[in-house]
Amino acid sequence: MKVLKQRSTCPISTALDVLGDKWVLLILRDMVFAGKSTYGQFLQSAEKMATNILADRLAVLESQGILNKAVAADKKSKFTYRLTEKGVDTVPLIIELVLWGAKHCPTIIDPRLLAELQDEKAAAVEKYKQLARDMARA
Amino acid sequence: MKVLKQRSTCPISTALDVLGDKWVLLILRDMVFAGKSTYGQFLQSAEKMATNILADRLAVLESQGILNKAVAADKKSKFTYRLTEKGVDTVPLIIELVLWGAKHCPTIIDPRLLAELQDEKAAAVEKYKQLARDMARA
DNA sequence: TCAAAACACTTGCAAATTGCAAGTGAAAAT
DNA sequence: ATTTTCACTTGCAATTTGCAAGTGTTTTGA
Fold it and tell me: Which molecular function terms from Gene Ontology are attached (chains A, B) (predicted)?
C-alpha cells in the first residue's frame, strides 16, 4: 500500500500530492480518451513510459482509490484497470489540460474534438464522464 | 533559458511537460488565490518549498511565457512576478484542482469559496481570471 | 503435451532531480 | 558605516528516474 505524504491541508496542494505527476495524468488520459485498461495498452502510448514507473503509478492510483484492479473477464493472466467515481471526477481537470495545451502549445488535436470541448464544455465533460463510467462497467 | 523536452504532440502531454509539476502549480495557486508576486512571498507557503526549487521553477515559468519578471516599482532589489495571459489561462485548471481536492481528499477550505466554485463555476472562473489580470497590471 | 509466446511485472544500476543547509552579493534601512 | 533584507547560488546526501534485462505465471499453437 503506497502512502503519499500530504504537504498541507490546502485542497490544491493535496490534489497535487497525487495528481501532480505527469505519468499519473497520462494514465488517466489513456483511460478516459483512449479507453485503455491494461498494463500492456498503457505501455504503448507515444510517451513511452518505463515499465517500473507504470507499475508504481498504477499502484499509487489504486491505493488512492482512483482506479480498481481486477482479473480480466477473458484471461486469468490479464488485469483490467477501471476508473472509480473518484477517477471519473478527474475528467473536468483533464479537459482543462487539453484546452490549455491546445491553445498555448504546439500540439496536434482533432479539430472536431477541440471544437466540442471549447463550444460545449459542460456537455462534453458530462459525455466523457459517462463514457468513462460505461467503460468501468464493461 | 530553460528548455523543456516535449514528449509527444498530444495537448495533454505537452501541457503536462510544464504544468505537471507540484511546485509549478503551487506557485500559480499563490499568484491567483493569494495575490503573491515575490520570491519571498512564495517561500512562505505552508508547503515550504526549497529555495533552489523555487528559483528553478520561476525560471521555467518565465521561459515558458507563463509569467513575467520585473524590477519592483518601490525597490530596485526586489522583483515582481506577474502572470501573462497564458498564465491567466491556467485559472480554470487550478479551479478544477480545488474542486477535486475538496471533494475527494481531507482538506480545509472556506465553505463560501467552495460554494462559489461549485454553484457558479463559469462566473467564478471569469472572476478569478480577471482578478489575476488586474494584479498583473498593478 | 509440451515448447513458445504473451503478459505483467521486478530487479539492478547509472544518471538526473530533490531537499536541506549554508553561503553570496547587491540594495535598503538604521 | 553597519546591519538587515532580499533574491538567489552552491555543495552534497538522499531519493527518484529511465533504461535494459530478467522473472514467473498463463495461454496459445504444433
Answer: DNA binding
